Amino acid sequence: MKIAVVFGTRPEIIKLSPIVRALNKKGQDFFVIHTNQHYDKNMDEIFLEELELPKAKYNLNIGSGTHANMTGRMLIEVEKILLSEKPDLLIVQGDTNTVLSVSLAASKLHIKVAHIEAGLRSYTKIPEETNRVLTDRISDFCFTPTELQKEILTGEGIDSENIFVVGNTIVDAVIENLKIAENKVKTLEKFDLEPNKYFLVTAHREENVDNQTKAEDILKAISDIQKKHDVKIIFPTHPRTKKQFENFELKLPENIIFTPPLGYLDMLILMKNAKLILTDSGGIQEEACILETPCLTMREATERPESIKVGGNTIVGTDYDKIIEEAEKMLNKKITWYNPFGDGTSAEKIVDILVQN
Q1: pLDDT at 42 over 60
Q2: How many domains are contained in the chain?
Q3: 161-206 tens-digit pLDDT
Q4: CA-to-CA dists, residue 351 to 17, 18, 178, 291, 348, angstroms
Q5: CATH number of the domain bearing residue 99
Q6: Which residues touch 120 (CB under 8 Å, ≥6 apart)?
């Protein structure tokens, strides 16, 4: 069997890294396509280097653009590769434009599609929801993190024989890479931070950073939290976020440490040692829960309800008062939750299932 593994963003690289390692370990015939949906070197290439992954055989160099522009260009370019390489199976992960585009191209060519992290739903009209719902419909293998997503998919009419509950590969990635990070990088020293004495903030979703009012509320809330608790706050800034802050001519609080995008190993260390995380990232919600770091999610809904259920995460949106209120609650909360996303063997289970089928 010949397999194409496709990614285009930082979270995809991270979550597919255990899959690539498992394919290598089992001697499978595979190649990697990188759509380069993330166009900043620090947002993708650095992760391949850090995680010691093989270079992509193909780079599409798609970069930024409107959803239609990205999706259309990816469809055209990846179809050429699939026609040339003729893989038997295509593996994708998550909910990006990359995932939908390449899955659609493969499906039209009668190439089987394996969707890792299938069945997630926020039930909101965001681009990621469209991508994940449509990809699930055309996938031959739907690998879900928990039983909850299996129930969602069967409720949507997906054949249960195509659904496999395997846990989430993010657990594999965290376990595999945390020790490497602790030995390889000096992140806390670099930013003069002490364990459990700083907050970590990330924001990149268009519904937040493309809205000036929401962006201002986020900045004001984190600035005031910093003043109240007298702890450092570090905010690695996504290229989209930086661009929008500049477009809105926002005054950045001087008491926040704004940095360029950081590598995965640096982010692992920052997440592991933070006292609190505020984010709109889906992946960071999971990683925070796995690392037992309290998290506030600056969105109106989440497709990771397991993190809410076990008590490691709270939805706060971008409302200033709610962010302040829930931060106090989370900071005074005892860490008693468990990791609901698997035991770190998801990649091995996925590859075994694909090889057997």
Answers
A1: no
A2: 2
A3: 999 999 999 999 999 889 889 988 999 999 999 999 999 999 999 9
A4: 13, 10, 23, 25, 5
A5: 3.40.50.2000
A6: 95, 132, 145, 149, 282, 303, 304
The partner residues of 276 in beta bridges, in order of sequence, read 199
Which position among 34, 115, 204, 238 bears the catalytic label? Answer: 204
How many Å is the Cα radius of gyration of the chain? 20
- Domain with 245, as residue range(s), is 177-331
Kindly tell me if the per-residue pLDDT of 224 is higher than 60. yes
pLDDT for res 48: 78
CB under 8 A, 24+ apart: contacts of 123-128: 123/301, 124/300, 124/301, 126/205, 126/207, 127/67, 127/97, 127/206, 128/95, 128/96, 128/282, 128/303
Residues constituting the chain: 357
Residues 105 and 190 in one domain: no
Is the pTM higher than 0.90? The answer reads no
Closest CA to 181 of 266, 77, 278, 257: 266
34 annotated active-site? no
- Tell me if 258 sits within 8 A of 223, measured CB to CB: no
Domain check: are 114 and 192 in the same one?
no
Same domain, 139 and 13: yes
Q: Answer whether residue 357 shows pLDDT above 90.
A: no
Per-residue confidence (pLDDT) for residue 9, from 0 to 100: 87
For residues 58 and 70, give the distance between their C-alpha atoms in angstroms, rounded to a whole number: 17
Confidence (pLDDT) at 180: 86
What is the distance between the alpha carbons of residues 341 and 313, in angstroms, rounded to a whole number? 14
